[in-house]
Amino acid sequence: xxxxxxxxxxxxxxxxxxxxxxxxAPVAQCxxxxxxxxxxxxxPGELIMHHIKDAHDWHIITWRGHPVSVPLPIIIYSxxxxxxxxxxxxFEHGHADYDGYRLVHEKIxxxxxxxxxxxxxxxxxxxxxxxxxxxxxxxxxxxxxxxxLLVAKSYKTxxxxxxxxxxxxxxxxxxxxxxxxAKMAIGPKYExxxxxxxxxxxxxxxxxxxxxxxxxxxxxxVTGNVAIPLVMASFTxxxxxxxxxxxxxxxxxxxxxxxxxxxxxxxxxxxMGVFVKPAVLVVRLFANIMAGHIVILxxxxxxxxxxxxxxxxxxSVSVASVAxxxxxxxxxxxVGAIQAYVFTLLSAIYFGLATQEAH
Length: 359
Known about the structure:
Elements: H1 2-29, H2 44-52, E1 57-63, E2 66-71, E3 73-78, E4 82-87, E5 101-104, E6 107-110, H3 119-123, E7 125-127, H4 132-157, H5 166-186, H6 194-211, H7 227-243, H8 246-253, H9 263-309, H10 311-355
Helix pairs in contact: 2-9, 4-6, 5-6, 5-10, 6-10, 7-9, 7-10, 9-10
């Protein structure tokens, strides 16, 4: 027992430093940026929305009133000017124009030689820039590829042997998705859809986990951006529509076994359900992940809200704010896994309904 206690105590300094490092970053990022005047009132709503939305650079920390960030490529196509490529650092965090363009609240607009906004040119502008969420998307794809290539290599080199290492960690999760999601919801033909279900499960889960890391290269709000759940839900919608058998469409357009007078009403309801189902996937994932980030940032920003009134007030609320932030971060670890499970399960249920044979 004494040996176990000593081993636990040995890890305590590392655990303390880890929490200090992780939760110092969001506190530093919640500081008012250098463009805010000293007498300007702190605006938590504006700051929170700034940190959860997509950006053309990767903000790391605000150091002595100056933001430190990683610039990202700007790729713009204009019908008037053609393609323009440069780094986002040329905008100087929105304080300077470059090559006839200006960055305003993370939106690129065209300006004329006098510095006035050219609305006509802005309307004909196409932004193909590599933003923070795009980089976060690439990160998660690389991580997924590395994990499963290593696991696949381990299976090839350790045929008939007990799994170990990364293989041992991933195998129960893969079996869980196969047995408790795909096989249960779809039935005997589950193997056809298992690659897609495994992909979206691990994609959502890993991106949710990366989004909870408040320091570079984590912190990108990928699944909290409505575009990402929308694309995944669109894939689920297309697959469900394509694989739908005769029994599935018959229950939508002319449900058997009910009075004819009721069938037109059910037709409208079932047709709405075809489009409501993928919409539910989008809203459930997007809203839950975005709300989690907002709540954590709200507790951190309470320090600066009370600190504006008095330094003592900021110090007094900081302990509770950081404690609640730590608790919510652990809660978000659970929520991130649950959201990946729910999205995958609902997709599998839709596939099962589309392929179910008539009784």
